[in-house]
Design goal:
Layout: E1 3-6, H1 12-21, E2 25-29, H2 40-49, E3 55-60, H3 65-74, E4 79-82, H4 88-91, E5 98-104, H5 110-116, E6 122-127, E7 153-155, H6 164-171, E8 175-178, E9 183-185, E10 188-189, H7 191-204
Helix pairs in contact: 1-2, 1-7, 6-7
């Protein structure tokens, strides 16, 4: 079964909408430049409202170790997600499992990434954009993903209710990750789009 993460949650009601629609995880963004950024206190409140067995993921982009530890003092996620150029030893330094995001373009060697980040629980594959580290609504060429990649794949980048079934059928990722594709505004989710997105994922598995 393809897992689903709804990323860029900024409100308790959106976290609950994701959970009730069947999401496996929500993403909480701590990147200063992101319009979906939350504080540690906001993240803790959102995570505390979730029902059992829905995971919380804390997303960082090139943070300092002090910035990560400051968040972890207030909010303890189930998983960390590093979306910048963080080296493997940095990602592994906080006593929590982590995902490593890779912005994919033709020159990207995903097999090399998988070897370098062998300690990651998986690789999150997103679209490359020179001025952004995610949430752009752009997809990348799924043919750039090599067969037999030795880490679980979390597919992101431009997914929405209209294309996620095709993405799941073609790539067969471990999980899919969506943010802007289920929004009415940056950081504000649409419960009906979340529900439709997850239905389309399930339909692709039949």
């Amino acid at each position: 079964m393809t897992r689903v993460k709804i990323c860029g949650i900024t409100r308790i009601e959106d976290g609950l909408a994701a959970a009730h629609a069947g999401a496996d995880a929500i993403g909480l963004v701590f990147a200063p430049a992101s319009p979906r950024r939350v504080t540690a206190a906001q993240a803790a409140a959102i995570a505390a409202a979730l029902p059992p067995f829905v995971s919380s993921v804390a997303l960082f982009v090139d943070p300092s170790a002090e910035e990560v530890r400051a968040v972890l003092q207030r909010f303890r996620p189930d998983l960390l997600q590093f979306h910048g150029d963080e080296p493997p030893d940095f990602c592994a330094a906080f006593g929590l499992p982590y995902l490593k995001a890779v912005r994919v373009r033709p020159a990207t060697d995903l097999l090399q990434y998988a070897a370098a980040y062998a300690g990651a629980r998986g690789l999150l594959l997103d679209a490359y954009h020179p001025d952004s580290h995610g949430g752009t609504g752009q997809r990348f060429d799924w043919d750039l993903i090599p067969r037999g990649l030795p880490r679980p794949i979390v597919l992101a980048g431009g997914l929405d209710p209209d294309n996620v079934a095709a993405a799941v059928s073609r790539v067969r990722p471990w999980a899919v990750d969506v943010s802007s594709g289920v929004e009415v505004a940056k950081g504000i989710k649409d419960a009906s789009r979340i529900a439709r997105f997850i239905r389309e994922v399930r339909n692709a598995e039949v």
